[in-house]
Amino acid sequence: MRVSASSWYELYDPSECARRVSLIAAGVQGAEPGAYEVVLEELGRRHESAYLATLEPAIRIAPGTDDQRMAATLEAIHSSAQVIYQPYFKTNLTVEGENVALVGNPDFLVLTNAGYVIRDAKLARHVSQDEMPQVYRQLQTYGFLFETLVGQAAGLQVYDGLGTLQDVSYEGADAFRAALAQLVRLRRSPLDFYEPVGWSKCQTCPFKSTCWPEAEARRDVSLVYGVSQEMAKSLHEAGIVTIEDLARADENGMLPLVPYRFGNKVRTIGKAAAALTLSARALVEGREVHIALPVIPPSANFVSFDLEGVPIPAMPEETIYLWGIQVFGVNPGPYQGITSDFEEGGDRRGWQRFLEAMAVIFDAHGDIPLVVYSSYEATHVRLYLNRHGDWNGVGARVLRNLWDMLPAIRNAVALPLYSYSLKQVELYVGFQRTQEEFGGSWSIAQYFRALESQDPATRNTILNEILTYNAEDLQATIRVFEWLRGLQVNP
Ligand code: SF4
After folding, report:
1. CA-to-CA distance for 334 and 19, rounded, in angstroms?
2. Would the pTM count as exceeding 0.90?
3. To which CATH superfamily is domain 301-489 assigned?
4. Domain map of the chain by residue range?
5. 23 C-alpha vs ligand 1 centroid, how far in Å?
6. Strand, coil or helix: what is 335?
7. Does position 17 have pLDDT exceeding 60, yes or no?
8. Which atom, in ligand 1's list, is nearest to the CA of 211?
9. Ligand 1: which of 24, 186, 193, 205 to mutate, judged by most atoms within 8 Å of the beta carbon?
10. What are the tens digits of pLDDT across the range 109-149?
């Protein structure tokens, strides 16, 4: 069996899932990477090349067989080369009775006063074991290979997306072998072990089209909105296996007592039992189940508010490139898609234009509620207040007037849906978009295409598509809002 340092991505990327490892080992074909993944790959290559340029002159390990590449690497190390680009390591091990060829191909080996340091260039900003276990495990693999083949320890570092070096400590050969044994066991597992699905866990996984229909066919309890991965495993053990089982479960009986893992702790389902059975009932009956009258701020007018952001390498947080607002209600207004420009200082100018537009709206409507869906807008308005400051108190006023519709929906009604994301709820209430392709990842990929393009016409076409997507997000928010408000009089 061949295991490479990047094999850990099977287990951890885009989400942690044991089944993905088994599916790949069984030869099941996953979907091809989407536009977003392709953009990230390209950005990663550029990040690595830019860093290489700062380390030149470097010894390059030429393509060849495993043995040729490793011999060239060891020769460069023994001749104390200052920088070795794309070194190559391979060793054979017996793990769980299996012959394993373990290989690793880090980006750089750099000679320092303390000896060699293995460095990988990553776009990520946080590379701790909890936040990026795939990166952590990849570095551990390099550390183990170097120690085994060179006979001494190497330092481990990530050159991160902000251009800083982050140290990763080597956990030692025993801990590495234990983790490797787990990966080998997963590769050999038959495919019939239980693995819950999850909306965010599976959404961008290449095997979604394999696992999701299977889970639907067996009516798996993990499909129910609000059932976490650990809850699903515990419910299975307690004999609550299907959506129907959960819908029938007594919310005052054994269901609240079911224990499940929550981080390092163990919790019981407790008061969440009522909401879970309602969500299951909504799915079984194929209709919404009303809980309470929706609570909506009293106002004649509202602002639909939605942001589009991108993770820019070398920026600590996302950059908002489009601030979308539209007044609706008794005195509706036009869509305003306020963009930051591509030139130096464009980020600040975009924020300033947004504040100016909001000042006009506040002048006309007073403290008008801004309807958002989830916490993204609040997080990023706070971020921009810190990054560029406020203007006449308008940013702080925006923050005070944000109203998140998602909790209001959850408190009012259980929907026959697996996810309460805007894209799912808008479909449920009958909203239709004009664009075939849309979504957060799609818009990020499009933004980078626009950024790359030297042709103003192409750039405008792409930006207009993103503006249409954002305008339809605002329309979808308004449509869902009107549906929710309708439940106040017609539950
Ligand atoms: S689709 Fe979901 S369950 Fe299947 S391999 Fe991917 S993350 Fe795991």
Report:
1. 48
2. no
3. Ribonuclease H-like superfamily/Ribonuclease H (3.30.420.10)
4. 2-188, 218-287, 301-489
5. 9
6. coil
7. yes
8. 4
9. 205
10. 999 999 999 999 998 777 888 889 999 999 999 999 999 99
